[in-house]
Design a protein that fits this description.
The structure is a single chain. The protein contains six helices and two strands. The chain has 170 residues and is mostly helical. The chain has a single domain, classed as dinb family like domain (Four Helix Bundle (Hemerythrin (Met), subunit A), Up-down Bundle). A two-stranded antiparallel ribbon has the order 1-2. The longest helix has 25 residues. The termini are close together.
């Protein structure tokens, strides 16, 4: 059974991408400072998932320069939406290879990074990733509203597929 935090991450991902549905690629590049553009947000979330679930957890990287393009602390960029969506899809699929193996007992463990335990447990990293998605979902929704995009989806969407199931009942 899928760990509840992993299910919640999958739901946060789906709501983030739902917020970006029907987005014109040219509009995805528009910035309203101090906000980043929408395509940057997609790449930024892909970059965090790559760092946590590919690099630290699995010792691999699919898009080596992604963090320089969309990482915190780097200059603002306006990467093409299609490239960021492709990176996001590839990275989240690879991340799930690891995430879907997690159990309650493994979620309290710390991954190894540079020959030391990473400061936060896997479960805490999951929470950090989930909350980061919600931050950018709200930001993306607000930016789309500011840009005048009509008929934006209501949040929070259909949770039936991601309903809470305690670990003790699995």
């Amino acid at each position: 059974m899928t760990l509840p935090l992993v299910s919640q991450l999958q739901f946060a991902r789906s709501e983030f991408m739902r917020c970006l549905s029907d987005l014109d690629p040219a509009e995805a590049l528009r910035r309203v400072e101090p906000l980043n553009c929408l395509s940057w947000m997609v790449g930024h979330m892909a970059s965090q998932e790559q760092a946590f679930w590919l690099l630290i957890a699995q010792g691999r990287t699919l898009f080596p320069d992604l963090h320089r393009l969309v990482g915190t602390g780097y200059p603002a960029s306006t990467p093409p939406l299609d490239e960021m969506v492709t990176a996001w899809k590839d990275i989240t699929a690879a991340a799930d290879e690891f995430l879907l193996t997690l159990t309650p007992s493994s979620a309290i463990k710390h991954l190894q990074w540079k020959n030391k335990p990473y400061p936060e447990s896997i479960g805490t990293l999951l929470q950090r990733n989930i909350y980061h998605y919600w931050l950018h979902t709200g930001e993306a929704h607000a930016l789309r509203s500011i840009l005048g995009h009509p008929n934006l989806p209501d949040f929070i969407g259909d949770m039936d597929r991601y309903a809470y199931r305690p670990e003790s009942l699995q």
